[in-house]
Structures are given as C-alpha cells and as structure tokens.
Amino acid sequence: MNKCKREILQLYQQGERNFQRENLRGLSFKGKDLSDADFSFADIRSTNFRGAILRGAKFCGAKAGLQKRWAVLLVAMSLLVSALLGAASGLAGLIASGMLQPAFIQKPHPIVLGVIVFVSLAVFFIFSIQQGYMPAIITVGFSLATAVAIGGIFYGTVAGIGAGTAAVAILTIVVGALAVIITLTIFVARVMSGAFVAVVGITVAAMVAAKIVVVAKKLEGAMRYAVNAVDSWESKAIAGGVAVAAVLLGSYIGWQANSEDEKHSLVRKIAIAFAAVGGTCFRDATLTDADFTDAILKSTDFRGANITGTCWKNTIKLDRIRPGETYLKYTKVRELVKTGEGENINLNRFNLQGINLKGVNLTNASFIEANLNSANLQYANLSRAKLVKTFLDQANLTGTTLTGAFLEDWGITTTTKLDGIKCDYVYMRLPPEKRPDFLKLSTEESLDERLRRKPADEDKYFEEGEFVEFIKPLVNTLDLYHNQAVDPRMAAYSFQKLQKDHPEAGIKMRSVELRGENNDKLLIRADTTPEANHSVLDKEYFDTYNRLKALSTEQLRAVLAEREKDIEWYKGVLSAAVNRPGVNIEKYINKGNTIMAENIGDQIHGNEIHGVVGDVGEIHGAVGKQGEIYGAVGNKGKIKDSKFARTINESQEQQNLAQAAKDIQELLAQLDETYPSDTTMDRMKIATEVITQIDNNQTKAQRILSAIKSGGIAAVKQSLNHPASTFVIAALEDWKKSK
C-alpha cells in the first residue's frame, strides 16, 4: 500500500528510517529533514526533495526521473515542436530553391541572391559539423548581415528585399535544425530512428502544405515569388534536398550532442533542461554522504545541491541529470565516480571539492592545482599520481596508497586525515618534462632534473607508518607569502614581533623560499603548535609589515633600531634569500654577513677579555683570538705570559663542551638516515629536528644547555662537521634564549 507524504513524515518523526521500495511518485518533501532515511529501491519519479536535508540518506537502486504522464507529455510536445519547425524547414527549402529559378530572377531579382543563400547554407553546414552549432549561427548571421548591406548598396530596395528573404530562409532552416537536434537528443537510441522517419515525413508534407499556402495567397512579396518559381521537378528536388539536408544535419548534431561532444554541449544542456521539467528534484538539497549506488537518475535536477561525499557508484543515466555547477558537470568526472576507474585521468585545475573517490583506482592520475578540499580519498590508489599544488584541506586520505606520487607543494593542512597511508617512497618535485604549460619552469630551473625522492637513497623505503611521521612536520607550517617585492628588514621585524607577541604559538622559522617566475615573491614558512590559529597569525604579521611600509624613512629607521639585535639573524637570512637568490644561505651566513653565535658566551673576539683575572694574577677565563691581554691583572700586578691561544687551565667546562658537541654530532648522524641536507630548507628542517630531540631528552638537554651557557655556542660550532651545522648553531642560540 502506497504511503502519503504525511504518513512518511510521521513515521520518520517516530524513528522509522526504513522506507525501502516505497512508492513516493509525485510527493513533495520540500525543505524537510530526512537525514539517514533509507529510500533504497523506492520509486521517486517526479518526487520533490528541493531544499531537503538528506545527510547520509540512501537511494540505492532508486528510480528517479519522470512519471509516465510527464514522459508522454514530453514526447507529445517534442513531436509537435518538431512538426511545426519541420514544416518551416520545408517552406525555407522552397524559398531557397525558388531564388535560383528563372521566374524569380526575371521579377527582377539578381541571381547573386540565390548564390548567397546556398553559399551561406554550405558554410552553415560545414561550420556546424566542424566547430559546433552556435559558432555556425554566428558565422552565417554575420555573412547574411554583410550580404544585406551590400545588396542594399548595389541593387537598391528590390535587392534588399530579396536579401532579407534569403536571411529569413536561412534562419528558418536553422530553427528547424535546432528542433530536430533537441528532439533527437531527448529521445534515447531505441526510439531515435522512429523520430528521424517522423521528422522527414513531416518535412516532405510541409513542402506540399507550403504550396497550398501560396495558392491561398498567404505569402507576399519576394517570398511568394520565390515559392511560385518552384514549378519543375528539378526545382522541387532542390527544395526537398535542402529540407532533408537540414534534417540530416540536425540528426547528426543531435547524435553528437547525445554522445556528449563538447562542440554541442549547449544543445545538450538545453535538451536535458527541457527533459528534466517535472522530473525528480534535489535542487538545493543537502546530500552530504548520501548513497545513490545503482540508482536510475535520468531527468533529475541536482542544481545547487551539496553533494559532498555522495556516492554515485554504478548509477544509471547519470549523464542525463541537471548538474548545475557541481563537479558532476564534467563528463569525465561523471564517468569516474560511476565506474571507479581513473587510471591516467587528467583533472588538472578541476574543482572537485567534496568528491567521493573512496577506493577508486587513480594510478598515474593528474590533479595539478585541482581542488580536492573535503574530498573522500579513503583507500584510493594514488600511486604515481601528480598532487602538485593540489588543495587537500579537510580531505580524507586514510589508507590511501601514495607510492611514487609527486607531492610538490601539495596543500595538506592540519585538518587533512593522513592515517594509515601506504607509501614506499614519494617525489617532492615534478620533473620538467611532466609539467603542464601553466607550471613550466624557467630555463635555468629546467636544467635541474632531480625529483627529490624521499627517502633520498634509492635503495631505501619508508617503513610502515614512517611516511606520515615524515610528512606531518610539513603540515603545521605557518605560510607567510609575500606576493610583491619584500623588504628583509621589515619582514624580520614583523616575524620577530609575531614570535614575541605569541609565545604560546611556538613560532620557529622553518624555511625561506623564493617564488614566482622572476623570483620576486617570497614565502616564509614557520613551525607552530597544532593549536595555533594560522589565520590570526598571518593577519597580525602582515598588519605589522604594512604599518612599517607606511612609515617615513626616518620613522622606519628609528623603529628598526629598537630591535636591531633581536632581528639581526632573521634580517640576514631574509636578505640572503631576497638579494642574492643564487647564493646558498648557509655559505652566506658563514661569511659573517649575519651575526650568528660567535659574539655570545665567554669566547673573545678582538682584544676584549670576558674572563676574570685571579687573585694571584692567573687567568682562568678564555682569551681573545689575538692572544693579547689588555685587561686587569691579579693582586701581584704581574702577568707571566701575555699571549695565549687557549685557556690556561683545563676545566670541566671544556669536557662539558666536548660532550655537548659529541651529543649533537651523534644526533646529526642519526638524522642523516632519514633527512636529506641538499638544500637550505632541508638543513633548516634538520636543525629544527635536532632541537626537538634535545628537548625530548631532559638529561641531554640540561647537559647541552649548561655547556653552551658556560663555554659558548661558538666553541660547540668548531667541533661540528655537518652541512647543517650553521643552522643548528643558530637554532641552539634561539633555544638557549627560550630557557
């Protein structure tokens, strides 16, 4: 027994969720909340779910579309429109043929008008097939407008009337062809041949009807003369040929549109919109995580619907829906979500937000700069896929296979689910030959063919769970992107102020990267705590930076002078990146252009003494590099030796420094197993990890802190031998200040 709308809603309010196999034809649930309801195998033809909330609802095997009475009405209207416009095509054929006949030319009408008509027809037919229906209309319309103007100039009023008649004939044929296209697109293949025969028969009959109309003197002027001129079998054959050619052209374009040929996409959209009138409506509905597996969806309206996480597996007639601006508007995407086969698919720059690709084969697929925010990629196979600059905020990658994928600048965030990812190795750079035109490298960058494999050793692979541990540190970064030329001094001040104002965010600079075709843009990446609000931090950073930009030169100099010592290191690193992009930042720092740790601690630079002189004139502190002592002496007022290269007495401090350096060197050796050190960014990552591991070992942390406070960080630096040693020393200095 069929249930009415009220019964369905009452049962739902009472907790019933099972509405399988119910007959819901023609019912309206507009704006109702039916979340988690099960409408599997139900008849929902012409049912109105507009604006309804259907989160998690099941429509597996449901039958959507038109009720029978709507389908019959649609067919009747299609045949009626086809008959009327088919008759118009027949009349146009008579006019076109008559304009070439002697009787018409003698009225007088120049023969050039008839030539124009048939040349325009030929152009229209050719353009319709090669370029599409709409470009053909535009081309022929322009040509006819030109012909009218020329006719009016050279042949006067009569020629102008004749040219106008030609325009009427062409446009009438165009309209007739459009009617056939729409009709044949609506009809499925099993009735297409019958529709074709019907339209042809109507067209031929229309030619006879047109002749009767002429006899009845319903046509006037040049059009009447043209039709009357068709009095021989040859002229009638030409007229019939024009009309039948229009029908054949319409049939061809209709078939192509039905096959989703992009040239005729507009025709297809019009036909589908016409066919969906009175069909099942999900317009503006919330269909988050709904399931349409095996459902029949012909003539169904999904415009404006929220289809995040919706399952479309094995759906039928998904190509006959009204998708609006959802991801289902793409032909290849509809096929993908229906079949689950996406090997080698190219979806670069597609907006696929919220798409459900759970378990789909996406081997070697390309998603460069695609929007996959909120996408369900659970257990999908993304081996060798290109996820370069792909947006993945709130995406679910649980159990996804990523072996061999290209992850250059991929857009994972703290909300991206990365649990249980299966991955042996990845590449952090897309090679030049695989890049699309919109992602081409400069000539110099193209010479670098390195893929930056992780792990870097070709013989090594990620252990189970290791990839997630490798990639997670890259997720929590605060990205401060300057899209215009940047002043290193102001950037350093803004960054240091952000650190000082938000100690709870744990902001630490991770890397500085040049961006843009001309290396004129800058990206500063910093580590933060997971709880840090990156939106707020980004805004405060650029608010500070923009305020500095608005200052006069004198005001800016005064503001920067207040924190000169605090920002010196950041200013040096940023200056190296901005002003000398070809120079390795580490080497730049080693040349002394930035103040690192050498001026800190008890080690003496120049001729100053930071140690103390004992009561008996013995020196227990360290002396300067110059070896000269110009400070105070002991009570006895005498110094036995005025030149020293090392401390006079061996002390526990030296042993502590040696042990601290050894601890750090061992950490660097361990990190070499999993972290590369080829680039500046790699070395910064190593330095950050060194500090993290030191903090995780209280005994080691206390020993190293005590050593660098008493003996100086520079002394530790002299004992380190590693490409990242300069960055480690800088990180230690920052770490020491925080203690």
What are the main properties of this structure?
739 residues, two-stranded antiparallel ribbon, Pectate Lyase C-like, elongated, 3% strand, single chain, 3-stranded antiparallel sheet, 5 domains, mainly alpha
Order of helices and strands: HHHHHHHHHHEHEHEHEEHHHHHHHHH
Determine the number of helices (DSSP H or I, runs of at least 4 residues).
22
Rg calc: 39 Å
Low-confidence stretches: 151-168, 183-219, 580-651
Per DSSP E runs of 2 or more residues, the count of β-strands stands at 5
Return the average pLDDT rounded to an integer.
74
Sheet with most strands: strand arrangement: 3-5-4
Total of domains: 5
- Supply the helix-strand structural class: mainly alpha
Work out the helicity level: 40-55%
Strand content: under 5%
Largest sheet: 3 strands, antiparallel
* Shape by Cα distribution: elongated
Span between N and C termini? 77 Å
Task: Offer a concise description of the structure.
By secondary structure, the chain is mainly α. It is 47% helix and 3% strand. Helix 16 crosses helix 17.
Write the layout of secondary structure elements.
Elements: H1 5-13, H2 68-98, H3 102-105, H4 111-130, H5 133-186, H6 189-215, H7 221-228, H8 233-258, H9 265-275, H10 331-339, E1 426-427, H11 443-446, E2 453-454, H12 466-471, E3 477-482, H13 488-501, E4 508-515, E5 521-527, H14 534-549, H15 553-562, H16 564-579, H17 585-593, H18 652-671, H19 680-695, H20 698-711, H21 713-719, H22 725-738
Antiparallel strand pairs: 1-2, 3-5, 4-5
Helix pairs in contact: 2-5, 2-6, 2-7, 2-8, 4-5, 5-8, 5-9, 6-8, 13-14, 13-16, 16-17, 18-19, 18-20, 18-21, 19-22, 20-21, 21-22
